[in-house]
Write a structure and sequence with these properties.
Helix content: 40-55%
Order of helices and strands: EHEHHHEHEEHEEEEHHHEH
Shape: globular
Distance between the termini: 17 Å
Number of strands: 10
């Protein structure tokens, strides 16, 4: 039996995007062939690595990350954002190189936002790393990225689940992964001692960096902006997907993890895989 071909749409949502890895793994194991990927923010990063055939490199890297490892990737010297992104992208280049998108074996489009012109920018040619860096430019956190004369920010600002780039694909099914799904009150809560341990490490790290309390504290400017961005993305995604519904929508609850909780890779990847298993049993996938 031939495999069912897929256009895969991978949404934005910070560390929740690690669920994309589990979803991709499930699809590969169940006779789906991914022929096209459209992604923004974390979806662009995961999708880009998959399109190069090097997603395993990134997955191994994530699984080795602890809280301090995450913070060391964040160079707090940005302009127009807390983080310049230079250290992170150097690490990404070590893992994947920097191929041109048009040379990849899978059709790939990364989506970013031109907030000056108020329009989406689709990147399907040129440097893969440049496209990813533009697409992950979370406002206030990452410095906006200059791409072909335009200053771009996170694709999730205008389209958190970018399905439109797949409209002309000749595949059997379009699957969209929405990382802004409804809050799931049944999700297990992290153990208090684990949260305190992470908090202590973050506090220790930040004590060596001259950041105002309004930024570094739990209920500071960044946390409020992050929560607001999540709410905005969720609303936009619902409207976009109602207008242009995919064949299958996989919804990841927005309270699955925090935006920067990349130290929970195994748990989040497994969640994505097991959610696909559940949808399969229900006949939705």
């Amino acid at each position: 039996m031939s495999k069912k071909t897929v256009s895969l749409v991978l949404g934005s949502g910070g560390a929740r995007g690690m669920a994309h890895i589990g979803i991709i793994r499930w699809l590969e194991e169940h006779d789906y062939k991914i022929e096209s990927i459209s992604g923004c923010s974390m979806g662009a990063l995961i999708g880009g690595f998959y399109a190069t055939g090097k997603l395993d490199n990134y997955t191994a890297f994530l699984r080795e990350l602890d809280t301090i490892g995450i913070l060391k990737l964040l160079d707090f010297k940005g302009s127009g954002g807390l983080v310049s992104g230079e250290t992170l992208m150097k690490k990404m280049k070590e893992l994947v190189g920097d191929p041109n998108i048009e040379e990849l074996p899978i059709k790939f489009t990364a989506v970013a936002s031109d907030i000056k012109e108020e329009k989406e920018i689709w990147m399907s040619r040129g440097s893969l790393l440049s496209a990813i860096r533009a697409s992950i430019s979370l406002p206030l956190f990452f410095t906006p990225y200059e791409y072909r004369g335009k200053m771009l920010v996170d694709g999730g600002v205008l389209n958190p689940v970018p399905i439109a780039p797949t409209f002309h694909d000749h595949t059997d099914v379009t699957i969209a992964v929405n990382l802004g799904g409804a809050v799931d009150l049944n999700l297990p809560v992290s153990k208090p001692e684990k949260r305190e341990g992470v908090s202590a490490k973050i506090t220790e790290y930040f004590s060596n960096i001259a950041l105002p309390d309004a930024i570094s504290m739990n209920n500071g400017i960044y946390q409020v902006a992050d929560n607001s961005f999540d709410a905005m993305q969720g609303t936009i995604a619902r409207m976009k997907l109602a207008t242009y519904p995919p064949d299958v929508e996989i919804k990841i609850p927005r309270n699955l993890c925090g935006t920067l909780e990349f130290n929970r890779a195994d748990e989040i990847i497994t969640y994505g895989y097991e959610l696909c298993e559940k949808l399969h049993r229900e006949g939705a996938l």
